[in-house]
Amino acid sequence: MADQGEESPESQISPYEDLNTKQKKITGETFPNVVLEMCDVCFWCSTCINERGLIKACPLCKNKTSRVTMTIDEMCSVEVDEKRGVTLHFDRKLPLR
Hints:
By secondary structure, the chain is mainly beta. 9% of the residues lie in helices and 33% in strands.
């Protein structure tokens, strides 16, 4: 059992303030969101920073696309494997502080 005076490791973690929150405090504005679009059938994908440019159907197979919204300091890598299918890896461009 831990000593009453010891702090848990979780108490050492400070919250992360994303770029949009920082920018909102400085100028009152936020950066545009980045949208990852991916076809639900053939896995064609694209990223878009202007939501007016989003498409409703895949340009290759004409099926529906799914969307994942990310902030400007987030990134996604797409890995396609014949055995496992599609794997999405999400990370932050800036290290956590």
